[in-house]
Amino acid sequence: MLYMLDTNIVSYLLEKNEKVLARFDTIFMQNKITISSIVHYEIQRGIFCRCSKKLQEKFELFCKHVPVIALTNSDFMLAARIYADLRLKGKPIEDADIFIGASALANEAVLVTNNEEHLGRIKGLRIENWTK
Questions:
Q1: Residue 61: its pLDDT value, please?
Q2: Which of 51, 77, 92, 94 has the greatest number of beta carbons closer than 10 A?
Q3: What domains, with CATH codes, occur in the chain?
C-alpha cells in the first residue's frame, strides 16, 4: 500500500513527534511512503522562513528515503474537479490541500494528515491520522 504524507505529518516527523515517528517506522518497514511536490514546497518554504540549516539537512535526509511525487496535468485536472465539487457544495478548502488530496487520489495512496476536517471533504480520499 502507498502512503502519502501531508505537510503537517512531515513537520511532526522533523520535530520528532514520538507518536508519529513510531507509526512512520512501523509503516515504512511494510509499505511505500511518499510526499507530493506540494508538500515538499510547503516544508521548504517553512524551512527558508526559519533560516534553519539544521532543519534543511534533516529534510534533505528525509527526502533521500521518501520520494517526492510531482503533480501531473491529470492531477491538476482532478484537482479542478475537486475544487468545483467543494465550491458548489459551499465547502471549499485551500488549493494546496486540494492539490495534495488530488495527488493522493491519483496515486491511489492513503493520505496521512492531521487535517481531517478539510481533507475529509474530498470524495473518495482515504485518510489516516497518525497523531491520534
A1: 96
A2: 92
A3: 2-128 (3.40.50.1010)
